[in-house]
Amino acid sequence: MNHSPTDPKYYDVVEATWPALRRRQLGPVTLREGGGGGSRVSAATVDGSVTEAQIAKAEAEMQALGQSRLFMIRDGQTDLDTQLAALGYEVMDPVNLWSCAPEILTDVEIPRVTTFCVWEPLAIQNEIWDAGGIGPERRAVMERATCTKTSLLGRWDDKPAATAYVGCHDRTAMLHALEVLPHQRRKGVGVWMMRQAAYWAADQGAEELVVICTRANAGANALYASLGMREVGQYHYRIKR
């Protein structure tokens, strides 16, 4: 599929709104300690070219941290992609980045008591995240982010329905960890959550609202497309199992 190159700013926004526990440089490789917070905060990245010896050293460091040998391949890094494939790394979790101007989603008023911005997240939000597999380690990522941030709580039929986290960096708001309870799905809750994220983003002076979604998640990709968001970037991981 042909696409425009991904603006590097989006990777900076990911880093600021969903930060690793610790980062350090090993030559051209940036190593991340994720603290169990998932691929996004534990994958190594490479700037420029890298030797097999440098990759091997990075692998040893990742394993010493108890983490998988995992690299994020940013858009356009075809040489690195080929190099890791030759070393036995498999493709994992290709993702799309979706974006829109907040005003695209603030044209409709949100029904009263449907969505709320709250920080710190409430106990019920943590329960919803737990139910969706977003446990304490991933929530710790939200806690340690130093950017402007909020969590979103969604309600439907007078009951808790959904939760999400939004951070803002460099006039770009990024939504993470959107989770809707199974019995509250297909009722439009996700749309209201995205609209609430857009209202919050506008209040922060953001020019864009961005969300990351694995390509395999057909339902979420369809939701973002239906809202008028457009694909602005992508990346994938390579893992040596």
Strands, helices and their partners?
Layout: H1 9-17, E1 22-26, E2 29-33, H2 39-42, E3 45-46, H3 52-64, E4 69-74, H4 78-86, E5 90-100, E6 115-118, H5 123-131, H6 136-144, E7 148-156, E8 159-169, E9 172-180, H7 189-203, E10 208-214, H8 218-226, E11 230-240
Parallel strand pairs: 9-10
Antiparallel strand pairs: 1-2, 2-3, 4-11, 5-10, 5-11, 6-7, 7-8, 8-9
Could you give a short description of this structure?
With 241 residues, this protein is an alpha+beta fold. Helices cover 32% and strands 33% of the residues.
Tell me the fraction of residues in β-strands, as a range.
25-35%
Q: Helices and strands, in N-to-C order?
A: HEEHEHEHEEHHEEEHEHE
**Radius of gyration computed on alpha carbons:** 18 Å
- What's the number of helices? 8
| Low-pLDDT sequence parts | none
Strand order of the largest sheet: 4-11-5-10-9-8-7-6
CATH class of the largest domain: Alpha Beta
Number of domains: 2
Describe the structure.
- With 241 residues, the protein is an alpha+beta fold.
- The protein folds into 2 domains: 9-96, no CATH class; 99-233, Gcn5-related N-acetyltransferase (GNAT) (Aminopeptidase).
- It has helices at 9-17, 39-42, 52-64, 78-86, 123-131, 136-144, 189-203, 218-226, and strands at 22-26, 29-33, 45-46, 69-74, 90-100, 115-118, 148-156, 159-169, 172-180, 208-214, 230-240.
- The strands form 2 sheets. The protein has an 8-stranded mixed beta sheet with strand order 4-11-5-10-9-8-7-6, sandwiched between helices. Strands 1-2-3 form a 3-stranded antiparallel beta sheet.
- Helix 7 (189-203) links the parallel strand 9 (172-180) and strand 10.
- The protein is globular, with a radius of gyration of 18 Å.
- The relative contact order is 0.21.
